Amino acid sequence: MRNLNRNRNFSKKFYTINNNIVAKELRVIDEQGKQVGVISKDEALQLANSKDLDLILIAPGASPQVARLMDFKKFLYQEEKKQKEAKKGVKKSTTKDLKLSLFIASADLNRLIAKGQEFLNSGNQLRLNLSLKGREMGKKDMAMALVNKFIQSLGELNISKEPRIEGRVIRAVVARKK
């Protein structure tokens, strides 16, 4: 059996237009954005037909409801354009992971510090994970010291999540101060 609803976009907002409007009186705004006033639905529909436009209900919660005279396809295009512009301004910050080990060489540690600074400078958060294996579980204090040393070497940071032991892993989340 085929799924016929798979291409539906449920995030779209639905508008009430023309004869589907049930209110008896409407506050009407013309195509230039000027208020026509509070008139009956029939008068508003006649006005829309005379100007070859659609009557679109834009504020159904208002009293009286607000409708606008406009070409419906143009209205949908402008709404979609507004949504795209709103999305452009929002920068999504991501969290990058760095994995440490207890007995890491100093050259490898310096390389990870440089990588961590690069992630932080690009506006990302940094999640540090230090896994303890086998007998390393007896050296938890040494592991915590390594994580704290790593965090201090990154510079001025906001610590979102303090380093703490979660089972066999020590985790911390840091971000650049704004």
Explain this structure.
By secondary structure, this protein is an alpha+beta fold. The chain folds into 2 domains: 66 residues, Ubiquitin-like (UB roll) (Roll); 82 residues, Translation Initiation Factor IF3 (2-Layer Sandwich). It contains 4 helices and 9 strands; from the N terminus they run βββαββαβαβαββ. The chain has a 5-stranded mixed beta sheet. It has a 4-stranded mixed beta sheet with strand order 6-7-9-8, with helices on one face. The N terminus is likely disordered.
Q: What features would you highlight for this structure?
A:
about 180 residues; alpha+beta; Ubiquitin-like (UB roll); Translation Initiation Factor IF3; 2 domains; five-stranded mixed beta sheet; four-stranded mixed beta sheet; 4 helices; rod-shaped; disordered N terminus
List the helices and strands and how they pair.
Layout: E1 16-17, E2 25-29, E3 35-40, H1 41-50, E4 54-59, E5 65-70, H2 72-89, E6 95-100, H3 106-121, E7 125-131, H4 140-153, E8 157-166, E9 169-176
Parallel strand pairs: 2-5, 6-7
Antiparallel strand pairs: 1-4, 2-3, 4-5, 7-9, 8-9
